[in-house]
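TICKET: design request
STATUS: open
ATTACHED STRUCTURE:
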């Protein structure tokens, strides 16, 4: 068993990474249904939250079936982050997660997200203040360092633990790498195996299969694994990983008909949570990934990303089940392209 403060999780828990424009309530619902142990909101701007910006406020919506669920915040100034943490706490998440990992230029260059790694004292002080301001566990997600010459995550991990965080997630790249190259888990392992560390260490980066997840647990001893981009169009990956960890066997990939059923469920939840117009618009990025790799699919894919009514979309999904229902999907794994923060 793994514990984040008083939150009890199963052995080798699996986490859904917070991803902008992806981990909304409908996608979190899908991932939770298929075995994600912990899910997170999209990341929320502290400035937007304290200004009562509608987009930021909407991201605070969570549901009891999601628990344990975290709300992730980012910002570059301490006082707004503290106030935002208090407002996020009022939404009753199980944890507040601080984003010190987002590499996107407009965020990092302002000193937020992974930009905070260039000012470790401020990072530590911001974290301390947030821990003191709220009554629920505070966790952090970050990277190895700003660039190749400043991979200081071992020191950062100790200092963040010392001011009271209850778990740390580490993405195995520097900020300058963005999402390029291969994630380096050796420093994640160094943090986990540091005798000073007492909190759970969660590894993140390039986990795109059940075998890869099992390898990261075995090789680096991490307490949990967080999956980001590989979930996009593939929410069942959590079930795949858990089955492999428990049995050593791989589950078959869902058939086209099963994927149609999943896409319909996802669409229904998107409509429920977001309404018809926004719900359809936000599903377009998911539809094509559910069916990535199908032959002669271009015209049908175009329909999925241009149709504007639920009736049209459900009809197209039924057509996909009829036309491609017998296709072998065993070698067609969705790559999951998104902004994992």
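STATUS: resolved
RESOLUTION: sequence designed for all positions
ATTACHED SEQUENCE:
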């Amino acid at each position: 068993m793994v514990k984040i403060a008083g939150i009890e999780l199963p052995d080798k828990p699996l986490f859904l990474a917070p991803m902008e424009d992806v981990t909304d309530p409908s996608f979190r619902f899908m991932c939770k249904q298929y075995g994600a142990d912990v899910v997170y909101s999209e990341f929320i701007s502290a400035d937007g939250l304290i200004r009562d910006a509608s987009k930021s406020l909407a991201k605070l919506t969570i549901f009891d079936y999601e628990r344990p669920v975290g709300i992730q915040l980012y910002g570059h100034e301490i006082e707004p982050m503290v106030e935002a943490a208090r407002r996020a706490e009022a939404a009753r998440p199980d944890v507040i997660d601080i984003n010190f990992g987002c590499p996107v230029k407009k965020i990092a260059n302002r000193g937020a997200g992974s930009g905070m790694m260039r000012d470790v004292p401020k990072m530590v002080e911001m974290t301390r203040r947030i821990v003191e301001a709220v009554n629920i566990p505070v966790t952090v997600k970050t990277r190895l360092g700003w660039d190749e010459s400043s991979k200081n995550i071992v020191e950062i991990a100790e200092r963040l633990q010392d001011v009271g965080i209850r778990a740390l997630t580490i993405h195995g790249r520097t900020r300058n790498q963005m999402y390029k190259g291969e994630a380096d888990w050796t420093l994640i392992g160094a943090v986990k195996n540091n005798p000073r560390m007492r909190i759970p260490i969660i590894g993140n980066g390039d986990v795109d299969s059940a075998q890869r997840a099992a390898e990261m647990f075995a090789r680096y001893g991490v307490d949990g694994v967080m999956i980001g981009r590989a979930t996009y169009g593939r929410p069942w990956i959590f079930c795949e990983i858990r089955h492999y960890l428990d049995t050593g066997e791989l589950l078959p990939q869902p058939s086209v008909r099963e994927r149609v059923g999943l896409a319909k469920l996802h669409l229904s939840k998107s409509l429920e949570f977001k309404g018809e117009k926004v719900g359809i618009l936000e599903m377009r990025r998911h539809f094509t990934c559910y069916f990535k790799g199908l032959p002669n699919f271009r015209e049908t894919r175009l329909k999925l990303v241009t149709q504007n009514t639920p009736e049209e979309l459900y009809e197209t999904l039924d057509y996909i089940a009829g036309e491609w229902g017998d296709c072998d999907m065993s070698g067609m794994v969705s790559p999951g392209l998104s902004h994992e923060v």
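CLOSING REMARK: The two ends are 26 Å apart (CA to CA). The longest strand covers residues 69-74.
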